[in-house]
Automatic annotation (TrEMBL):
This is CTLH domain-containing protein. Pfam families: TPR1-like_2nd, WD40, zf_topless. Residues 1-55 form the CTLH domain. It comes from Ceratopteris richardii. Residues 1096-1106 have a biased composition (Basic and acidic residues). The keyword Nucleotide-binding does not apply.
Length: 1106
């Protein structure tokens, strides 16, 4: 700090920034940004004070312009200082003294910012060193160099420290030069990345290139593509260019470069750049990793399933989409697919060579000498359509997977000489590839569709143990580890390894990134049984932290996995050990009965389930609360029979062998088969049966199919005494409620009326309501801030009564984004103040949706049928999506499928890939049987909790789609006791029910699995007898944690909260025929007029239910 202070006081600003750049960059965090801003602002003011206008303009354009993207108003105000004879005429700068005092004041401010900046921690005080420290380091270095000598002498002769030590060869032979990697120089130090100072291709004009960026930088001639900003900026990009495309990692909120105690010109209203920052208490800690939203209670600790595989399990992998589907490989070469929810083995494949004649002679000889084969690795492709199996002898098998038992042979690759030790999928150049490594010391890349070899990477001196492909923006690469402990990195080219360093333990090591791709870990075991779990620091090129807690001598190679960007897990000492990624000490240990010494383990994608191998050739599955809900949801799906109203069109489902789950992702290459027909029979009232799958994957009788189905008895509620309703208090002018949402915490309701005014009702904690959550038992308060202002949307040059409103709430309920035909406004939910406005119409915004992994990214549906992908932080539209013909009326993101689904007033649904923002599929709504589709009317979409099934709401129908294929699974159309047009609908919070409102005032509660109505609420329930028949709900909202509570926004401007009676506890009830279930026997319906878009099945019959 002393040197820094001296340079600041001397006004050597170039040296000040150069010195700072060794610790931080301008866009690293809000503290860094404020530090650089204060320095450049002072530099600018000093130029103005000297009347050096030319220099001031130069500083304004070159140094301060970078901050304009974050606060345009501030930049304009700074620019206006040029017009003043003395900048002290500006009120906020009136107390500016002379240069020396101003630098002193600024230095105090900088010290506060530096001390608060986490990047400067442990770097402000020079450490205390022992007098012998330098000698110790030299001795350690010389000892290490001596260990690397090919011909070490017992008494080495050390003559100089200017070059690396090397003992001369015996008998006077000429010594060979020290081994040197062509890119990274001398052999690395133990446990760390190689020093980049030896790199003969240093990146130009990049003073702080990271260890990985060193070999991915565009300055290096053998690297294709430009490195992303997060890995070190390309030399031709200035700071402004970096800020134009800032890093926005998943789940992160933006940062504010203002400090709370700044009294300088930065005192302005909150800029756009800060708009999406989540509110925190003043002086609270800075969140470095978004994973802190999880606690150790989120770990899957409770055993919920035990699966008996029958032979020792060697590898496991959960399906990336169907998160209860588990792939297993064994020591005898078998693979199996299990449905963890039902504990059923869906598919089983023993090892066999598919075409021995096509295999190499070496493989044929190996199989003849010793036919026993083990699975070394089995893995799903990222989309779950393929799976790969690496075996202990030569071969790799690739299967296509269509769901349940539909497992088909696709490719057999004679991949390596000897064992194939690992396998992974990757997408170089947007093409699905398989990466393998083996005993022949090579890594190979294969085309997943045709099996052609694309690359062979040679350079390891020992069998390659594992591979870890990864991507940093447009740079794709592969890490590989060998059993001699060497780790190498490869780009998809023929230029050789880019780095070469040693893994702790120097033996069997695997590597893995956190789910968001920002943190790199490795876990390995030495030959002596010592295990190491470490995190690598990519920016500094060494091991960031080493996790403790392993047994001194592990019995076998320790396996590990990561989850939720927060936790690490490893099997050791007959236990499962968990670590917080930010803490080297063991977080918790689980002792599950029957575990081996070093159990293998695997999380599912969302970390709610954990599969662990057992001693008795089985698998234990552990779950957290979310995992238990997930299993229950799939259990219900397995038990429930699908129903549909007899007037609805029957859905075609892609035909696979009997037993295919239509919800599982499949590719176009697999769909060249005939469609499957569902059949329906009228059951009770509005219920009808729909048969579209079997769940056990076992052969069925040829002529009949008998399934158990739950039959709902339709409850008709006509009086307020049959349920609980609450009309919310309101003293503001009444206007139609067009949008209605619960806060994420479930303690308040937010309504947007047709007059562009928001209303917020909050429930208070009390003895009768300890949780403070919304309830129909207690009246809430119509909340307003002390200022008394109303939260009102911009309505300049627009008629809000005719506009299409839209609204979206931030994850922590601190901000709401809203529009009513004018500009989009961002409001603070505590003060009701407008933080910023953007998106000046035309066109007007008609729908808003936050990106689930990045609060800075918003999808905005527009009146002109386009969708803008907008980055709030930089006030920039990243992409503009075109595919609809009329205004956008619905948007929904899926984390599981990594897609955005859009719907419009054109009755079309589009699927967009969120990684490249390209359209994948489009489908128009199908009209109900015998009815034309209305030419007007909005279409809305909402994802089920499984993030695969999609609820589609149109005035003419409710429908469930499989979003992975955009295929309709079920449809319900208004009829019988619910004949009116649908005004709105939504899933309950647990996705077990669908609440639908109708234009005649009725409300229907549907079973979400079958779309069978289970309850009807008449308008008299919430309006009273003899009420105005023209009043009806325009919008329905579901409580975020109470699955049986919903709220209605009505045309008369009132809001009603509705719940079942406490004695009932839920809506509707199931009939009790045949112990609560009834049998349906479904014969052929080839002549049925209800069949739509499909061909009949001849092995299915239709009879009336018995």
């Amino acid at each position: 700090m002393k040197y820094f202070e001296e340079q600041v006081q001397a006004g050597d600003w170039d040296e000040v920034e150069r010195y700072l750049s060794g610790f931080t960059k301008v866009d690293d965090n809000r503290y860094s940004m404020k530090i650089f801003f204060e320095i450049r602002k002072q530099k600018y003011l000093e130029a103005l004070d000297k009347q050096d206008r030319g220099k001031a303009v130069d500083i304004l354009v070159k140094d301060l312009k970078v901050f304009a993207s974050f606060n345009e108003e501030l930049y304009k105000e700074i620019t206006q200082l040029l017009t003043l004879e003395n900048f002290r005429e500006n009120e906020q700068l009136s107390k500016y003294g002379d240069t020396k005092s101003a630098r002193g004041i600024m230095l105090l401010e900088l010290k506060k910012l530096i001390e608060a900046n986490p990047l400067f921690r442990e770097k402000l005080i020079f450490p205390t060193l022992k007098a012998s420290r330098l000698r110790t380091l030299i001795n350690q270095s010389l000892n290490w160099q001596h260990q690397l000598c090919k011909n070490p002498r017992s008494n080495p002769d050390i003559k100089t420290l200017f070059v690396d030590h090397s003992c001369g060869p015996p008998n006077g032979a000429r010594a060979q030069p020290p081994p040197n990697n062509p890119l990274v120089g001398a052999l690395p130090k133990a446990g760390g990345f190689p020093p980049l100072t030896h790199n003969p291709f240093p990146p130009a004009a990049s003073p702080a290139v990271t260890a990985l960026a060193g070999w991915m930088n565009p300055a290096a001639p053998n690297v294709v593509g430009a490195g992303p900003a997060a890995l070190g900026a390309p030399p031709n990009l200035g700071a402004a260019a970096l800020l134009k495309r800032p890093r926005t990692p998943p789940n992160s909120s933006t940062v504010d470069y203002q400090s709370g105690d700044s009294e300088h010109i930065m005192k302005r209203s909150r800029p756009v750049s800060q708009a999406m920052e989540e509110v925190s208490y003043p002086g609270g800690p800075v969140t470095m990793h978004p994973s802190n939203m999880y606690s150790s209670e989120d770990l899957p600790k409770t055993p919920v399933r035990t699966l008996n595989q029958g032979s020792c399990v060697m590898s496991m992998d959960f399906h990336p989409v169907q998160q209860t589907i588990l792939l297993v490989g064994t020591n005898v070469g078998d693979i199996a697919i299990w449905d963890v929810a039902s504990k059923e083995r869906l598919a089983f494949k023993p090892f066999k060579v598919w075409d021995i004649g096509a295999c190499s002679a070496a493989m044929q000889n190996a199989m003849m000498k010793e036919p026993a084969v083990s699975v070394n690795r089995c893995m799903w492709s990222p989309d779950g359509n393929w799976l790969g199996v690496a075996f202990s002898k030569h071969v790799v098998h690739i299967y296509s997977y269509g769901g349940l038992s539909d497992l088909r042979e696709h490719l057999e690759i004679d991949a390596h000489s000897g064992g194939v030790n690992d396998l992974a999928f990757s997408h170089p150049n947007k093409q699905l590839c398989i990466i393998t490594c083996g005993d022949d010391k090579t890594i190979k890349v294969w085309d997943a569709l045709n099996g052609r070899r694309q690359y062979t990477f040679e350079g390891h001196e020992a069998p390659v143990y594992s591979v870890c492909p990864h991507q940093k923006e447009n740079i794709q690469f592969i890490f590989s580890t060998a059993i001699d402990g060497k780790i190498k990195a490869w780009l998809y080219d023929h230029m050789g390894s880019r780095v070469d360093y040693d893994a702790p333990g120097h033996w069997c090591t695997t590597m893995a990134y956190s789910a968001d791709g920002t943190r790199l870990f490795s876990c390995g075991t030495s030959k002596e049984g010592e295990s190491f779990l470490v995190e690598w620091n990519e920016s500094e090129g060494n091991i960031k932290r080493t996790y403790s807690g392993f047994r001194k001598r592990s019995l076998g190679v320790v396996q590990f996995d990561t989850t939720r960007n927060r936790f690490l897990a490893a099997g050791d000492e007959f236990h499962i050990k968990f670590w917080d990624m930010d803490n080297v000490n063991v977080l918790t240990t689980i002792e599950a009965e029957g575990l081996p010494a070093s159990p293998r383990l695997r999380f599912n994608k969302d970390g709610s389930l954990l599969a662990v191998t057992t001693n008795d050739n089985g698998i234990k599955v552990l779950a957290n609360a979310d995992g238990m809900r997930l299993l229950r949801a799939y259990e219900n799906r397995s038990e429930n029979r699908m129903f549909e109203s007899s007037g609805a069109a029957v859905e075609p489902v892609a035909s696979k062998p009997l037993g295919v789950n239509p919800m599982v992702t499949s590719t176009a290459a697999q769909s060249g088969v005939t469609d499957r027909v569902s059949t329906a029979a009228s059951m009770v009232g509005m219920a009808s049966a729909e048969s579209n799958r079997t769940l056990d994957g076992k052969p069925k009788m040829e002529d009949t199919m008998v399934e158990k189905v739950k039959v709902w008895k339709l409850s008709d509620i006509t009086d307020a005494s049959q349920c609980r309703t609450l009309k919310l208090p309101d003293n503001l002018p009444a206007s139609k409620v067009l949008r209605l949402i619960y806060t994420n915490a479930g303690v308040a309701l937010l309504a947007l009326s047709s007059n562009a005014v928001h209303k917020l009702w909050k429930w208070q904690r009390s003895d009768r309501n300890a949780s403070g959550k919304a309830t129909a038992s207690l009246s809430p308060q119509l909340w307003q801030p002390s200022s008394g202002i109303l939260m009102t949307n911009d309505i300049t040059d627009t008629n809000p009564e005719e506009a299409v409103p839209c609204i979206a709430l931030s994850k922590n309920d601190s901000y709401v984004m809203s529009a009513s035909g004018g500009k989009v406004s961002l409001f603070n939910m505590m003060t009701f103040k407008v933080m910023t406005t953007f998106m000046q119409p035309p066109p007007a915004a008609t729908f808003l949706a936050f990106h689930p992994q990045d609060n800075n990214i918003i999808a905005i549906g527009m009146e002109d049928s386009t969708i803008h992908i907008y980055n709030v932080r930089v006030d920039e539209v990243k992409s503009k999506l075109k595919g609809h013909q009329k205004r956008i009326s619905g948007l929904a993101f899926s984390n599981t499928l990594n897609v955005l689904v859009s719907s419009g007033a054109d009755a079309q649904i589009c699927i967009w890939a969120t990684d490249v923002w390209e359209k994948r599929r489009t489908k128009s709504l199908q009209p109900p049987a015998g009815r034309p589709l209305p030419t007007t009317g909005d279409t809305r979409v909402q994802f089920n909790n499984d993030q695969i099934r999609l609820l589609v709401v149109h005035e003419s129908q409710l429908a469930i789609y499989d979003a992975s294929k955009l295929e309709r699974i079920r449809q319900w159309v208004p009829r019988d006791s619910l004949p009116a047009s649908i005004s709105n609908a939504t899933y309950s919070c647990d996705s077990q029910l669908v609440y639908a409102s109708f234009c005649d005032g009725a409300v229907g509660v549907f079973d979400a699995e079958s779309l069978q109505p289970c309850c009807r609420l008449a308008p008299s329930v919430y309006l009273g007898l003899g009420s105005n028949s023209s009043v009806y709900p325009l919008v329905v909202a579901a409580h975020p944690s109470e699955p049986n509570q919903f709220a209605l926004g009505l045309t008369d401007g009132t809001v009603q909260v509705v719940e079942p009676l406490e004695s009932e506890g839920r809506w509707g009830s199931a009939s009790t025929s045949d112990n609560g279930m009834i049998k349906s026997i479904l014969p052929s319906m080839g002549s049925s007029s209800q069949v739509a878009e499909s061909t009949p099945r001849n092995d299915v019959k239709l009879e009336a239910p018995k």
